[in-house]
Amino acid sequence: MRLYQNQKCLYPQKYSLIFHKMACLLVFCLTVNISPSMAQGVLATNTAANADYTREVNDLLQKAGSILEKQSGQALVYTQDALKIAQKNNYLSGKAESFSLLGKTYKKLGNNTEALKYYLGAIRTFETLNEQAKLAEQYRETGYLYLSMTAYRKAKEYFQLYQRAREKSWIDAKEQLNFIEDLAFVYWKLGEYHEAKKYYITLASEYTTLADKVQLEKCYQRLAGISQALNQFEDAVAYHQNLLSMYQSENNMIKTTGIYNNLGVLYKNSGNTKMALEYFNKAINFSEKYKDGLREDVQVALLTNIGVAYTNLSLFSRAKEYYLQALKLLEKQKNREGEANLYNHLASNYFISGKNALALKSVTAAVDIGVTYDAKETLATSYKILSLIYKADNNLGRAQLYEDKYKEIIKKIQDKEGDAFEEMFQRQIDIEIKEDE
After folding, report:
1. CA of 408: how far to CAs of 374, 381, 400, in Å?
2. In sequence order, which residues have a C-beta less than 8 Å from that of residue 54 and are 6 or more positions away?
3. Quick one: residue 270, left, alpha or beta (phi over 0 = left, psi -120 to 50 = alpha)?
4. How far apart (Å, rounded) are the C-alpha atoms in residues 299 and 327?
5. CA 242/CA 256 separation, integer angstroms
6. Which of 129, 165, 159 is nearest to 144 (CA)?
7. Is 75 exposed, middle or buried (0-12, 13-18, 19+ CB in 10 A)?
8. Cα separation of 95 and 81, whole Å?
9. Cα–Cα distances in Å, from 166 out to 61, 140, 196, 339?
10. What angle do CA 361, 367, 373 make, to 5 degrees?
11. Which of 318, 325, 314 has its CA nearest to residue 353?
12. Contact 342, 301 (CB under 8 A)
């Protein structure tokens, strides 16, 4: 009443009591509408409804996950139903989990386009929810999906996101190791050899500690190849030496001989003839001890390796003996493309030793087989040998003819590789367009 004590009264005095009672009644009504007991009743009703649809969504997702491997079609139905309920009730966590499981299900069904759509939906929803652990796992799953689609650049992108998210919270050492292996592979496939090498060195160290010889061998093989591609001669030799130690301890004759030859070639290309000869001789001496009593395919490999070593040592007659032994076994096996490769070896051996007529006869046999079986790489070698033979005989017209054939077939091989690369690149573009959508 103090508030109005200086103001003129707008109503007659007799209505003041009525207004007072009405005001009290209104306050009471408002108080009743928001009373704690009634508010609890409303909250309880909403909580119950919330529990109903969240339970239904989670139950459907659990059912779907439990049968995903064996009943992917039914799992898809359950997960789609879960998503509908989650969307209807704007249950974001349920939507995110449904998106993620739909992605896995479509991937299992071989529909990578749909899988990608739902994986990306899961990422966006987990981002909204700020679910960092689940977001990290979704990055990993998306990276592996891209990897299966040979979209290596996108795989790298999501692997890097996962790596940053997991830097300080790897689930376990094995998971980290498997992931690094896949990341190294992606860098290797992209031709980013310096990055690939860094990760393969890490892997080699870990697999050495774990005494995992199978994985360690793969690492050394990849590191040897990468080092050669980067023209890092000393590293290439070192990784070949590591492989040599492994193969010797396993008494693996084929691989040991192959490494001796590889080391011989490495030293020969570096200009170190003395070391090259040493390793070629080791290849011969080692192979001679074990070439008898082995499976025929193993014998072919050993005999060929010995022949290559003798050719590199300029002991051409000895090389010929071993090539012919290998050729005889291939003829017995009816391995025609293998025969063509051996004829090329013989032709090279004859040509280097100055026996051009015999070289011509051998390489012609290789060409006949190569044409019949459309063995392009074998034919490329044959045409190059023919070009060299005719050039040495001063038949420049035919030398140019086969040089052109060589270039033509090399172009076809490169075009095929280029087409595969273009296909991969176009697929990557298509994927990025879908991702943007």
Report:
1. 14, 12, 12
2. 91, 94
3. alpha
4. 11
5. 11
6. 159
7. buried
8. 11
9. 26, 10, 20, 52
10. 145
11. 314
12. no
Question: Which three-class secondary structure state does DSSP give residue 231?
Answer: coil
Do 346 and 327 meet the contact criterion of CB atoms below 8 Å apart?
A: yes
Spatial separation of the C-alpha atoms in residues 352 and 347, rounded to whole Å: 9
Tokens of 380: 């490329």
Check if the beta carbon of residue 242 is closer than 8 Å to that of residue 205.
no
Count each helix (H run) and each strand (E run) in the chain, helices first. Answer: 19, 0
Helix pair angle (376-392, 336-352), 10° resolution: 20
Q: Are 371 and 338 in contact (CB under 8 A)?
A: no
d(CA 190, CA 229): 13
- 231 alpha-carbon distance from chain centroid: 24
- CB-based contacts of 98: which residues, under 8 Å, 6+ apart? 57, 61, 79, 82, 83, 86
Question: pTM to 2 decimals?
Answer: 0.68
pLDDT (tens digit, 0 to 9) for every residue of the chain, 437 residues total? 333 333 333 334 443 433 444 434 333 333 333 333 333 343 333 444 566 889 999 999 999 999 999 999 999 999 999 999 999 999 999 999 999 999 999 999 999 989 999 999 999 999 999 998 899 999 999 999 999 988 888 999 999 999 888 776 666 778 788 889 999 999 999 899 999 999 999 999 999 999 999 999 999 999 999 999 999 999 999 999 999 999 999 888 888 888 998 898 899 888 888 888 888 888 878 777 766 656 788 788 778 878 888 888 889 999 999 999 999 999 999 999 999 999 999 999 999 999 999 999 999 999 999 999 988 899 999 999 999 999 999 999 999 999 999 999 888 877 765 555 555 545 555 655 555 55
Asked if 362 and 343 count as a contact pair (C-beta separation under 8 A), the reply is: yes
C-alpha distance across the termini of the chain, in Å: 66
For tokens 């987990």, what's the residue?
126
Helix (H, G, I), strand (E, B), or coil: what is residue 250? Answer: coil
> Locate tokens 């979704």: which residue?
138
Distance CA 178, CA 266 (A): 32
Q: Tokens at residue 174, please?
A: 């094995």
